[in-house]
Specification:
It contains eight helices and twelve strands. By secondary structure, it is an alpha/beta fold. It has a single domain, classed as Rossmann fold (3-Layer(aba) Sandwich), CATH 3.40.50.720. The strands form two sheets. Strands 1, 2, 3, 4, 5, 8, 9, 10, 11 and 12 form a ten-stranded mixed β-sheet that branches. A two-stranded antiparallel ribbon has the order 6-7. A hairpin with a 2-residue loop joins strand 9 and strand 10. The structure holds NADP nicotinamide-adenine-dinucleotide phosphate. NADP nicotinamide-adenine-dinucleotide phosphate binds next to helix 1 and helix 4.
Length: 198
């Protein structure tokens, strides 16, 4: 299983830090190219490989850690998805108001899924502030919770397993029009920093 993170800002860097901490290899790309990632790689070490956006889009699992409005542009160069996994860590936000984007009641990840036809799309890694996501998931005798939603049970299970390997406690909520709505920006599960005991 190959992993790639697209986006090296607050969330992309937080995720890369957790992959490095867990000794899991991951590629990372942004809009500026691999050279711009030299400092991050120097800090996090050899499990993190800087790459180009087109290369990152070839991974078995592609994690979108970019603005919601940038997704269509970022994924346009992808080859066939053929059942590969796309993890949507984006939040659909109107700036500068910092309010939920009006999506007519739809799940933001269903909209992302339309941009990656043939991918198995999972919503995860979007509910915690970046600084919390970057911090040690072992806390107060338990593990920090990350939510998982998606319409493909096998992909949900793969990402829940990844979340376990990263040291967090996954809670799988269900499909995008159920759990996805609960964990998207403006919904009750966003910014809930929960610890699961045992
Ligand atoms: N910050 C948080 O606490 C937080 C929490 C939960 C969820 N989120 C969500 O996570 C996502 C990322 O947020 P962030 O705070 O990490 O943003 P950020 O710090 O502004 O970083 C955004 C990253 O996306 C990259 N990017 C933008 N357009 C791109 C494109 N077309 N192709 C490739 N890369 C592109 C940028 O590349 P360059 O570096 O080259 O500019 C940058 O690395 C957003 O959807 C946000 O709503 C954020």
């Amino acid at each position: 299983m190959t992993y790639a993170i697209i986006g090296s800002g607050a969330i992309g860097s937080a995720l890369a830090r957790q992959f490095a901490r867990s000794s899991i290899e991951v590629q990372i790309a942004n809009s500026r190219g691999p050279d711009s990632l030299a400092d991050l790689v120097a800090e996090l070490g050899s499990y993190i490989t800087p790459t180009t956006l087109p290369e990152a889009l070839k991974a078995d699992t592609v994690i979108l850690a970019i603005p919601f409005m940038a997704v269509a542009d970022a994924v346009q160069g992808s080859a066939q998805w053929n059942g590969r996994i796309v993890v949507d860590a984006t939040n659909a936000i109107d700036f500068p108001a910092f309010t939920p984007k009006d999506l007519g009641g739809r799940s933001s990840t269903e909209i992302v899924a339309e941009m990656v036809p043939g991918a198995r799309v999972v919503k995860a890694f979007n509910t915690l502030p970046a600084a919390v996501l970057a911090s040690d998931p072992a806390q107060d005798g338990g593990r920090r919770v990350l939510f998982v939603s998606g319409n493909h049970a096998s992909a949900n299970a793969d990402i829940a397993s990844l979340i376990e390997r990263l040291g967090f406690a996954p809670i799988t909520l269900g499909g995008l029009n159920q759990g996805g709505l609960l964990q998207q920006f403006g919904a009750p599960l966003v910014a809930q920093n929960l610890i699961k005991l045992r």
